[in-house]
Amino acid sequence: MQDDLIRIEKMVKFYPVMRRGIFRSKQTGVIRAVDNVTFSIRRGETLGLVGESGCGKTTTARALLYLTAPTSGRAHFQGTDIIEVFERGAKEEILRIRRRLQYVFQDPYLSLNPRWSIAETVLEPFRVHRHLPENQWDDRLMELLELVGLEYYHAWRYPHEFSGGQRQRVGIARALAVEPRFLICDEPVSSLDVSVRAQILNLLIELQEKLGLTYLYISHDLSSVRFISDRVAVMYLGKIVEIAAVDELFARPLHHYTYALLTAIPIPEPDADRGHSVLKGEVPSAVNPPPGCRFHPRCEAALPQCREMPVELAPAGDEHLVACHNPR
Length: 328
Ligand SMILES: Nc1ncnc2c1ncn2[C@@H]1O[C@H](COP(=O)(O)OP(=O)(O)OP(=O)(O)O)[C@@H](O)[C@H]1O
Ligand code: SF4
Ligand SMILES: [Mg+2]
Fold this sequence. Notes:
By secondary structure, this protein is of the alpha/beta class.
């Protein structure tokens, strides 16, 4: 579609499972971390990506940015095949794409170098990308700190002198340094105290409006996904099982896994009726995922064909896609 900023098409990422011997290792299988995933992100929107731990959210994001080479599949940014650029493009072209697509990590403490001052941290992308003359770095640093709600004097402090929320602001400033169009925010508030989560989410929303950014917001926390997203994609064991506008998804989940996730959200009133949660059992292994619909061993609505027939995303209403033989 014309207003798609990002399109991931048939993305696959398998990791080998190795058995180590004394003299040599042997491959015994593959982890199907991301298995034929297709979706688009529109210019200016936030697409939430949710699913239980290990379902492939981070791997999808890393394959999109070629931080890990995908096994197969394509990714487009503004119509350019970026996997092709990462694999065969000139160094300048790769850097140009890297500038436009940035990553905000879950734990700012681990992603910041403890020996670097905030100024060094935020300015480092300038050194790598060389897109700004050195005499403008100071002004740009000031501008970036102000954008994320930090003071200029913070520039000469070190990560350990900041609170978790402030460190995440530094992580965001660093991602914004090279004027990206698209940010992947991978669990950006999960490691933070509940009281500062809303501040960081509000900052992301504010920056999106001010700078015209597009986000892929990854989380297993549905409350924050609901708060920040325009549309939501639900992932289960390497597959996207449902995509819809956020209000539609929360009001009318069609996939039984989405419904189970929603009914599992804790709510303040203990007596309130949330329906009957169907999320039982463990997530099966991504090495030997169940055939047919991967959710069938945990699904109370499974039909005989769910155990054998693979199921792909199909339209189920206004911009609502679901991969289910027997939707709710
Ligand atoms: N570098 C790697 N080598 C081998 N297996 C990996 C690697 N990275 C991820 N995996 C496996 O791929 C699958 C998907 O992992 P991924 O980190 O993408 O999940 P996730 O949805 O981001 O989970 P979480 O919510 O815990 O962050 C998991 O089974 C994981 O163990
Ligand atoms: S395809 Fe079948 S097993 Fe999978 S969610 Fe739908 S009803 Fe349940
Ligand atoms: Mg992850």
